[in-house]
Fold each of these.
Amino acid sequence: MPNIQTKRLELIEFPTSYQEYNYEYIGTSSRGEKLLFTTHKGKSFFLQIIQREADFLIKGDKLSRVSPVSITQNALDGFSKLHNLELTFSNIQSKPENNRLKDDLGVLKNAYHFTKDFNYDKEIWIEVGFGSGRHLLHQASENPHIQFIGLEIHRPSIEQVIKQSKLQNLDNIIISDFDARVFMQLINSNSVGKIFVHFPVPWDKKPHRRVISKAFITESLRLLKMDGTLELRTDSEKYFAYSFETLQEFDKYDIQIRKNHDLPVSSKYEDRWKKQEKNIYDIILTNQELSADKTTTDFLTFDKNVNFSGVKKRFSNHIIRGDDFFVHFEDIYEIDANSGIIKLSLGAYEKCEHKYLLFKDNKIQYFPSVLLPIEQNFKSHQKIKEFLYV
Ligand SMILES: C[S@@+](CC[C@H](N)C(=O)[O-])C[C@H]1O[C@@H](n2cnc3c(N)ncnc32)[C@H](O)[C@@H]1O
């Protein structure tokens, strides 16, 4: 993170600005850590000001960071100029931005894209954990009329596949780095023709981390079209048996099982297992029922304000845990008697979100972005409201 360090700092009055950077207000925690709300051409973020034993560290805040990184660097530079700082360290004049994906960012979509901008005109096929991407790229080139969504959490694999899809002129793949176990909740019912889960990590010692679960199958069946399929391919006999057993809890589907069946393309992992002469199992689940539409796509908001000083009195660092969700109230920052900031982590255990809650101008809102409308977030949001509106 870009940062500057100085021995002396006397804060000037806010709001103030330097060139196109606006420094609006400061929130201060009980430990004296400060968050400076900063804006630049419609983008908002915090700078963190930390007083250490012998000096001050001023840096970009990770949770609200904006892209490109030069915005944070320039904001720190403006801050330094406004305060006439004598810097003892600075990394803000560092090299030009290293953004290897810059040209290709259009293909990598964040989860919010799938809640509002996503186009459902074409049939969708989803590949979960595409790894080296051989299967995804092959399917996309064979089926240009299909919109592919590739889900992968391993950044180098994502970059490699984006590069390959560009080289092959494939314009029917979009990629998300969101955890597949939660991602499915963002997609409309009855819109997907095929879901591929090829060689998922077996997680024999931590089964709760497996992609295949009752919740994942429920969501898959909801978003599959009539006769749409969920294809699991694995070299792990244990994973195969576990998945088969999990499927027994469902009805309204047809199931086909295959052993050592060759596909037109062999993935990197598949090649490895074949060399070791391992068996390869397929379970193909065909959906035979239309599902109801998703209940809501509304974002989670607050419809009434609260007295911030009352919230501050009640605040303590604590965690509320539910069966599949949690809320961690981490820290609180006071701006003035009526406004402030709470730092939170919340949502699904396997895909938690980090947010600030801004209490400002008689409104409460999540920052730097709204909460995704997924079930566990609804539950966390409910707990936050219970805490705020006692
Ligand atoms: C064993 S590799 C298989 C890759 C590829 N399907 C193949 O056959 O070569 C499993 C992949 O799933 C990805 N993965 C694991 N958990 C995931 C999750 N919850 N959501 C999305 N991808 C995940 C991993 O990063 C890894 O690339």
Amino acid sequence: MAVRHSKLSQIEKIARPIKWRWRISSLQENPDKVRSANMRAIRSKNSRPEMAVRRCAHSLGYRYRLHDKRLPGSPDLVFRSRKKVIFVHGCYWHGHGCKRGGSGAKTNTEYWRPKIARNKERDKISVNKLTADGWNVLTLWECELNDVHALKVRLVDFLK
Ligand SMILES: [Zn+2]
């Protein structure tokens, strides 16, 4: 029994790295797989820009709901009683006209351009639907969030 067990684990020791190598080469052959995994990671809901806005709004004493799926575009922050929502957009993925989002973004351009265009289109439709339903919408861009004081002023102004 003991012998059989040790033989088995020897086989496992050999088999494991082979399996791992196969996995790596399969990812190398399928760059799309890697790309979409990256995109998922980058577009995660609790992104750094969004966390900055949440921290700021929270420190000002506002209470909000997150990513409300019942509303068009599932806005990042929802202030239901005020009928106001905030989207926090990464400049690259949502095609901001700034350096980071516009022509400055050179990596994988042909691959990403249509996806970014689709994001932009979706964002526009969401804002239009929300506005039509009587919501006030504020879109904050990643590149605007470095100045915490300015962000506070904008939040207070929007939420009053
Ligand atoms: Zn920007």
Amino acid sequence: MFEGPTGHVETVDLVMLYIVGISVILLLGITAVMVYFVFKYHRKHGHKPKDIHGSILLETIWIAIPTVLVLSMFYFGYIGYEELRNIPDDAMKIDVTARMWEWDFNYDNGKQTDTLFVPLGQPVKLLMKSVDVNHSLYIPAFRIKEDVIAGKETFLGFTADRVGDFDIACAEYCGLNHSMMYTKVIVMPNDEFASWYNDESEVKNLVESGKEE
Ligand SMILES: [Cu+2]
């Protein structure tokens, strides 16, 4: 948690922890008060309950606190959203096509693979479309996910700052083999990526090696 192959990991994990933390505190607090009231106000012999009519102070407090909490969740969520959606103009663009049940990655120089290869430390923008039903491109380790919608182009951006290979899953139920619609993103050092990118003969080889895992 909080550390990973993209800058989004910290942002997303912090928002997650913030929301879950508030929820847990509220759950425990409300449960404790409920249990306390059950004992304090249970039916006693010779004791008549009294009606209470309104309290401006209490009502203001229980409207104000949840409003502030919810707006703060929205604020931190929005900061993260901005970070995810603002992709530098000079990002490397890769066309992604989703189909039942595989991914195609198309590079500007005509290279096509079924594994996503990206250079280390460079912003990447995935331009995604589907040729059949709705899919969703999800890279858990990068904390990014975006639906790939039939008849509409969507995008996703990231900068990988760690060499390695990470799972790509389809996160939108898309039919029989949805659960097998996996591939990988392979992050390579710049020089290695450049030689892969410019070497036509290597295409097939790397596609196959990417598929093995
Ligand atoms: Cu799918």
